[in-house]
Amino acid sequence: MTLSLGCIADDYTGASDLANTLAKEGLRTIQTIGIPTDDLALPEVDAIVVSLKIRSIAAPEAVERARASDRWLRERGADHVMYKICSTFDSTDSGNIGPVLDSLRADAGETTVLVTPAFPQTGRTVYQGNLFVGAAPLNESPLKDHPLNPMHDANLVRVLARQSAAAVGLVDLAIVARGAEAIVERLAQLASDGNGAAITDAVFESDLEAIGAAALRQRLSIGASGLGLGLARGLIAAGTVRRHERTAVYGKPVGGPAAVLAGSCSQATLKQIAKAEQTMPVLRLDPEKLMNGREEAQLALDWAAERMARTPVIIASSSNPVDVSRLQTRYGRDAVGKVIEQSLAAIAEGLVERGVRRLIVAGGETSGAVVDRLAIPAFQLGQEIVAGVPVLHSIGGRHGGMVLALKSGNFGGESFFADALAIMA
Ligand SMILES: Nc1ncnc2c1ncn2[C@@H]1O[C@H](COP(=O)(O)OP(=O)(O)O)[C@@H](O)[C@H]1O
Ligand SMILES: O=C(O)[C@@H](O)C(=O)COP(=O)(O)O
């Protein structure tokens, strides 16, 4: 297989979001969990999205995993590798976007790396280097309260400069609006001024097309699904890839009980749980009890077992920002995140042992913990549920065919869970 595009995603929900975009744009795409083993049979594809769980781990480890994935993708023919980050630039001053950028840039021999998290379909736009979530600047959006990486600065030139050894410049919207050649010229100018990265404005899909065409002249780019859209359209326009009509896999219905696990504390997820509570049973875990032992997880499984033959069930650890911050003050941010993720992963394993094959997970870190626990090696893309969230069909793995949806905390409307369950046969 010779890849036309290689992608590395810093979390699993982000990976399925990007894979969904590439497939929609006509690239035959699969999502792998980490670097697949040689014995995993993969279909012929144009693009592979290697999912990593490196958004919130120590920077040196994140760098090592991203570099190994980059080498694997390039060995399979990928001339261009995109590093997929969150459309809300989820990171902290110690990384991991900057350190990964620095190392992949050095490995690719790139001068100035184009960086844009814009994803207009979900309301993420960048203007004068400032990221907007809908109408709100990033630092006034719900991301200011994220449990792991609260975002307090909307100016991405500043944010990235704090994380990266490289100087960071800006390709502003006026240049982007003039098209790919103008972007390439600006990148060359930024390179000669000593910049190693360039935050690039984008508001409309036409901006992303120009950005994609310019990025393909380089070996590395960094961004969210909007950049993926631009790269896919660029590859097709250049004739490098033939457009394939999206053939969403429907597969044989897996049937059986269905469950939702939510570890996201994002506002969108909190609203989705509240809405679902009107029509299906929801168990709200006690996070304090989760921090203090295993019994809460066992009780959750017993609760689910009593109900799931009749109805889909939702099990959620999600809390509001005040409660999240209280718990973190008591036990420490990393410890809380890790323990709750692992508790939800243990519940997922228990549910699958009890027959669940249709599973929705809300939250990027949470999805990573769950999918790792279930040891699913890869996914084929199914139908899109909402922008950024596809149905995923497992490839390989010890549990046979499973259907999952990995929902980014911030994505989807209030009725997301019911809508997803309705199409996850
Ligand atoms: N009640 C809670 N209090 C504190 N942290 C929580 C709680 N519930 C879940 N978490 C943690 O919050 C983080 C949410 O991140 P993630 O799953 O990536 O969601 P999102 O997609 O919204 O960013 C996880 O590390 C999760 O374990
Ligand atoms: O780009 C995005 O917004 C998503 O694809 C994404 O990465 C989501 O991350 P989580 O909110 O942590 O799921």
From TrEMBL:
<keyword id="KW-0547">Nucleotide-binding</keyword>
<keyword id="KW-0418">Kinase</keyword>
<dbReference type="InterPro" id="IPR050007">
    <property type="entry name" value="OtnK"/>
</dbReference>
<dbReference type="InterPro" id="IPR031475">
    <property type="entry name" value="NBD_C"/>
</dbReference>
<dbReference type="Pfam" id="PF07005">
    <property type="entry name" value="SBD_N"/>
</dbReference>
<dbReference type="InterPro" id="IPR010737">
    <property type="entry name" value="4-carb_acid_sugar_kinase_N"/>
</dbReference>
<protein>
    <recommendedName>
        <fullName>3-oxo-tetronate kinase</fullName>
        <ecNumber>2.7.1.217</ecNumber>
    </recommendedName>
</protein>
<feature type="domain" description="Four-carbon acid sugar kinase nucleotide binding">
    <location>
        <begin position="259"/>
        <end position="417"/>
    </location>
</feature>
<dbReference type="InterPro" id="IPR042213">
    <property type="entry name" value="NBD_C_sf"/>
</dbReference>
<comment type="similarity">
    <text>Belongs to the four-carbon acid sugar kinase family.</text>
</comment>
<comment type="function">
    <text>Catalyzes the ATP-dependent phosphorylation of 3-oxo-tetronate to 3-oxo-tetronate 4-phosphate.</text>
</comment>
<dbReference type="Pfam" id="PF17042">
    <property type="entry name" value="NBD_C"/>
</dbReference>
<dbReference type="GO" id="GO:0016301">
    <property type="term" value="F:kinase activity"/>
</dbReference>
<feature type="domain" description="Four-carbon acid sugar kinase N-terminal">
    <location>
        <begin position="5"/>
        <end position="229"/>
    </location>
</feature>
<keyword id="KW-0067">ATP-binding</keyword>
<dbReference type="InterPro" id="IPR037051">
    <property type="entry name" value="4-carb_acid_sugar_kinase_N_sf"/>
</dbReference>
<keyword id="KW-0808">Transferase</keyword>
<keyword id="KW-0119">Carbohydrate metabolism</keyword>
